[in-house]
Design a protein that fits this description.
The protein is mostly helical and about 500 residues long. The protein has 21 helices and 2 strands. It has 2 domains: about 210 residues, no CATH class; about 200 residues, no CATH class. It is a multi-pass membrane protein.
Length: about 500
């Protein structure tokens, strides 16, 4: 969202005559940002609904009213002060990415303000908590056990909004030309239905249905209605914020853990696959390349972690080890971060390495989870194997690589392989850079790599280096890693490049 100090450059860009008679796109960009700001502001008022159930927290209402209304009014002014977009105006790829980055940064700032207004957190801590929620990471600097209910719900709301994607929700509301480009810039390239708006609404319907169903299941399993709604709002988006300091271990309930595993797996599944499953296309769901990987890796990791938990005394017996191993394997692979073990900091290097691998891989593409994603890992690995066979094996028997995608078997193109391998390499480079920055802030090698991998993969489990006692610098580095991971790195870089281009154009028009 453009700040008031930057609006002087916007009219020069918007009102200037377009070169070559091309449609002006900046009015479209400004109006989209205006709608986004209004939505962010109005959504920021939703936690006020908690006050009737917790009337003693009414004094905290201004902490949400002023930021929410301020954001909504700012968005209203931007929208109606912008000229009407030209017919046929479309956002370029960089403009769409710039719009996406601005929406996310604005939302992070707005949802950090209640923490500051209440005096709960410092500026760096508030930004960290807001970013963690919106990116569905789940790392927290809040003392959950003493946190007011209105702020617990605020945290869950940020997970809900960020899990399915701020821009996806906006696409349900905004259908003008250019919306599809912004929708894609956030990482949504799945199209269940012909238009982006219809696809977004269908995804939101599935998303909300899972959350409501999960909340009812939790309530039947013994949770209070407040806990059931909050945990479900964080399980499906694979966010990991909990209403108790012990996370899911607080209830010590096999039924609640099974419900949570189901919701986490649903959140870590490609929305298109969930759509196909709802339409009865079980074979297409089961044979898709990522489905056996998701369940197979979960099962294998569960057994491996159970062995480590038993060997290190984390679990008391084989049954408890299998139960905790299965839960933590799914929680980490889907980048949720819920816990049924006391602390990850107490684990030895071997189980931490297994958990690190799970964080890097992540669950399925086009889901609410983070990480590299199973599809990219599969394509990059198959492409590497094919290249090795072509270079060093029997060339007469080298054939194209085929995979099953949504029930159809098709060959991978060179572009498919190159795109996956490029992303994997870029992801690992960013991980190395972020870990090094945390090491410069005082983290050990293990802490730096593990905690930044958790931020980048939106996982939310850590060694404890990033927490309430951390200095501002590591918290801001972790926040940057969360945003990079949530926007899948490339759109964020494209967005920054687009913003720089807009600023340069504004400066040249202002001369």
């Amino acid at each position: 969202m453009a700040r008031p100090g930057n609006t002087t450059a916007l009219p020069a860009l918007v009102l200037g005559k377009p070169e070559g008679g091309r449609p002006r796109c900046l009015p479209l960009l400004a109006r989209y940002l205006g709608v986004a700001a209004m939505f962010v502001g109005m959504a920021g008022l939703v936690p006020l609904a908690v006050i009737p159930a917790y009337p003693d927290e009414a004094s905290l209402a201004p902490c949400f009213i002023f930021p929410g209304l301020g954001a909504a009014v700012a968005g209203y002014l931007v929208y109606f002060a912008s000229p009407r977009p030209d017919p046929g105006a479309r956002l370029s790829r960089r403009q769409a990415a710039a719009c996406t980055v601005l929406v996310w940064l604005f939302a992070i700032a707005v949802y950090a303000l209640p923490y500051l207004a209440a005096g709960m957190l410092s500026p760096a801590q508030a930004l960290f908590e807001s970013t963690s929620g919106l990116t569905t990471t789940g790392l927290s600097v809040v003392d959950v056990d003493s946190c007011p209910a209105i702020f617990l719900f605020h945290r869950s709301l940020t997970c809900y909004l960020g899990g399915v994607g701020l821009v996806l929700i906006l696409t349900c509301l905004v259908t003008q030309t250019g919306g599809l480009g912004v929708y894609n810039a956030e990482g949504h390239t799945d199209h269940l239905l012909p238009s982006a708006a219809k696809t977004a609404r269908m995804i939101l319907l599935i998303y909300n249905g899972l959350i409501i169903g999960g909340a009812v299941a939790y309530w039947l399993a013994g949770m209070t209605p407040f806990d059931a709604l909050n945990i479900s709002m964080c399980a499906v988006p694979t966010g990991g914020f909990a209403t108790h300091g012990d996370s899911i271990a607080y209830w010590d309930s096999p039924a609640i853990e099974v419900i949570t595993i189901v919701l986490m797996l649903a959140g870590g599944t490609n929305f298109l696959l969930l759509f196909l499953l709802l339409r009865g296309r079980l074979k297409a769901f089961a044979t898709h390349i990522e489905t056996p990987m998701l369940f197979g890796i979960s099962a294998l990791a569960a057994l491996v972690l159970a062995g480590f938990f038993l060997a290190e005394g984390i679990s008391g017996d084989v049954g408890a080890a299998l139960r905790q191993g299965a839960f933590q394997a799914v929680s980490v692979l889907t980048s949720t971060g819920f816990q049924t073990i006391p602390s990850f900091a107490a684990l030895g290097p071997a189980p931490l390495f297994v958990i690190l691998l799970l964080m890097l891989v992540g669950a399925e593409a086009r889901s609410t989870s983070g990480g590299i994603k199973l599809y990219r890992v599969a394509v990059a690995s198959l492409g590497l194997g094919h290249d090795l066979r072509r270079r060093y094996g029997n060339r007469r028997h080298v054939t194209s690589v085929k995979v099953n995608r949504f029930g159809r078997r098709s060959a991978l193109s060179d572009d498919d392989v190159a795109e996956a391998q490029t992303f994997v390499a870029l992801y690992l480079l960013v991980l190395g850079g972020g870990a090094f920055l945390l090491i410069l802030c005082g983290a050990s090698l293990q802490e730096g790599v593990f905690d930044f991998a958790s931020c980048l993969g939106s996982t939310g489990v850590g060694t404890g280096f990033l927490g309430a006692e951390s200095a501002p610098a590591p918290l801001l580095i972790g926040s940057a890693g969360m945003l990079l991971g949530r926007l899948e790195i490339i759109p964020l870089f494209l967005g920054i490049e687009g913003l720089v281009s807009l600023i340069r154009r504004g400066a040249s028009h202002g001369r």
